[in-house]
Design brief:
With 429 residues, the chain is α/β, with parallel strands linked by helices. It has eleven helices and 17 strands.
């Protein structure tokens, strides 16, 4: 027994040789796999980087298009639209760098055009480019802004370097994304205040000037604003004239005291006409209805494409009574639910008042009910010192819209024109 190795020692040698063999095999296998795994990891890292940077470019380009489209809608200015797009793009980064857009027309990174649905209302929107120069000069209509976000050899940002360069002899890559922000058609419900305060007017006549002097009234007769009954020795108003129109004539034409004072209602009629004038100049097709309120409310015309009907309706409304703003809104929504309302058009309600809600349901309550049931935007307009701006700001906030205030008739016209230009903007690509 002493000349033979113990069985235990034979087993140990065998296992040691096996471990050495196995260790060598594993190390050889790892020597092959490690480079493959490193290359796969590098591919994964670069692929993740490409996906991240492309997503960043999409976000930046979409934001730039939306900002440009909004600015173009509100200001109708090529310069303003390009500035908004450029600034917004630069606020977003791609691979840690601000996205840079060229302003020049020839760069083709910010374009203007029209959109259509050649396959019908359920089809995709298509963009048709319009010369930026024509749009800038007012000789071409545009309703959409297209922005190209580029990270390539010809862009200000250039190509994007890979985190791990050199794979397949590639050290960088390019990515491009385009976005179109278009203005959509609207169905618009105007809800107008015709309460008694809309008739208020103050003629602060200077001394030695009055519309009631005999000489002044005789001048009114000669101008066709007054009539005179010789037998009764009595003056009257000519057809279509009243005390307000006569005194305005005396102020402005007879005494030449400058622009005559106006009633809030007269200012509102002018503002609505300005509103419709702007809509007639847009490439979209809007429909407009009119609801009005005093102590009670009425829907005075359903949605109309013929704006002359809308103008005539407003001009023929009568004023007087309390201020039931909420009732007016309840009437106004009916036109947007009618069969004439288009399912693909944006729904907008514009609520105007010169006073304080003092009868009927609160407009804030109505706004909450409407927004809980329908997809629309509610803008509010207050006019003059007596209007409850706080309440109407609340209504606009609930309605996802904007509150506007005007102190003068000129400002009221400007407000309505701004609302008309404030077309909803959506991304279509």
């Amino acid at each position: 027994m002493s000349g033979n190795a113990p069985p235990k020692m034979i087993g140990e040698n065998f296992h040691n040789r096996f471990r050495r063999t196995r260790r060598g095999s594993v190390m050889g296998l790892m020597a092959i796999l490690f480079p493959v795994l490193a290359i796969l990891a590098a591919f994964c890292i670069n692929a993740a980087q490409m996906q991240l940077n492309r997503t960043e470019l999409i976000v930046a380009t979409d934001a730039a298009a939306r900002a440009g489209g909004r600015a173009f809608s509100e200001l109708q200015s090529v310069h303003s639209a390009k500035s908004a797009a450029i600034v917004t793009a630069a606020l977003n980064t791609v691979n840690g760098e601000p996205l840079l857009l060229r302003r020049g027309d020839r760069a083709g990174e910010i374009e203007f055009g029209l959109t259509s649905q050649p396959d019908g209302v359920n089809g995709r929107y298509e963009f048709q480019k319009v010369s930026t120069g024509l749009v800038r000069e007012g000789n071409g209509l545009a309703s959409a802004v297209r922005v190209y976000g580029k990270c390539n050899a010809w862009s200000l940002n250039g190509r994007i370097p890979f985190v791990i360069p050199g794979l397949l002899e590639q050290s960088d890559f390019e990515t491009i994304h385009s976005a179109v922000a278009m203005q959509v058609d609207r169905d618009i419900s105007l809800v107008l205040d015709r309460s008694g305060s809309m008739d208020d007017i103050d003629f602060d006549w200077p001394s030695n000037k009055s519309p009631w002097y005999t000489s002044t009234k005789n001048a009114g007769v000669d101008a066709g604003l007054l009539t005179y009954n010789k037998r009764r020795r009595r003056y009257g108003y000519a057809s279509g004239e009243d005390s307000t129109s006569y005194q305005q004539w005396v102020w402005q034409e007879h005494y030449e005291l400058g622009p005559a004072p106006t009633q809030p209602w007269q200012d509102l009629v002018g503002a609505v006409n300005g509103f419709l004038d702007v809509l007639e100049g847009t490439s979209q097709q809007e429909q407009v209805s009119v609801g009005s309120y005093s102590t009670s409310a009425t829907l005075d015309t359903w949605l109309e494409k013929d704006f002359e009907i809308v103008r005539s309706t407003v001009e023929n409304l009568n004023t007087g009574g309390w201020t039931a703003i909420g009732l007016g809104m309840e009437e106004g929504i009916e036109s947007l639910l009618n069969s004439a309302a288009r399912p693909y058009a944006a729904k907008t309600m514009v609520v105007m008042t010169d006073g304080i809600h003092n009868t009927g349901v609160s407009p804030a309550t109505v706004a909450q009910d409407l927004m809980g049931s329908y997809n629309l935007t509610i803008h509010t307009v207050t006019f003059g010192d007596g209007a409850d701006q706080s309440l109407m700001q609340q209504v606009a906030g609930i309605g996802g819209g904007k509150h506007y205030h005007a102190s003068t008739g000129t400002e009221l016209v400007a407000v309505f024109e701004e609302i008309a230009n404030n077309l909803p903007t959506i991304l279509t690509k």
